[in-house]
Amino acid sequence: MNRPEFVQRAYLRATNKPTAPSSGTKKYNQLIGYGEYLVENWLTERGTEWESTFDYRSFSGTVGASDTFAFPTAIRKISTQEGNYVRILHSDGETETEYELVPASRLYEYRYANVCAVVGRSLMFPQAFTATDAQFGGTIVAPSYGFVTFPDNDDDDIAVDDPNWLVVMAAAEFVRNDITRQQQYPNLIAEANTLMAKMKENNGDFDDDIYRPNIFLDTDTEWL
Questions:
Q1: pLDDT, averaged across the chain
Q2: Domain range list for the chain
Q3: How far, CA to CA in Å, does 27 sit from each of 1, 12, 24, 68, 121?
Q4: What pLDDT does 156 receive?
Q5: Average pLDDT of 184-191?
Q6: CA distance 25 to 214
Q7: What's the pTM value of the predicted model, to 2 decimals?
């Protein structure tokens, strides 16, 4: 579903009129504004990380003499789901090192293991890399969630998993302050909530809480 289709469908649901408002009119701009706002809300839906926004994304530049590396702009959040490792691809193009994510407050407890932590919009390792490290000059690749925005161009598709949710929610916002149509608001919200629940079901209602890594305290078999 692209921008014109979204406007036409949202206006139809709100007013029962099949002809969409023309581009640049007040009603058209209202619906576009609702779309922009609602996509941002969808992206940050509480308790859910949308798998459609997940990918392994590379950090810009290479690993240098530092312990902290800023996220690239494409990364919104690094996945902390168990089994998702941060990797450094070595400069030889053949080998790599895997790092488990741990809470930032416990990073130095694990300083002799292959771990890292998210600190703000940076990835931090227990110690700075040096030129003698195999990872020096390599590329960091992280399992991560990206950003989604409402399309700026008419031909671009809406990236929400179910664009019909966006249509119904925009229609609800459109009628909410319209004294002649606001009685439709509860029904539209109820429909949108059903569509959201279905989206979450299809997404696995995915929770990305950080996990406790299986790291040895020492050479004994005591787990953290």
A1: 91
A2: 3-49+148-203, 53-146
A3: 19, 12, 8, 47, 38
A4: 95
A5: 98
A6: 58
A7: 0.85
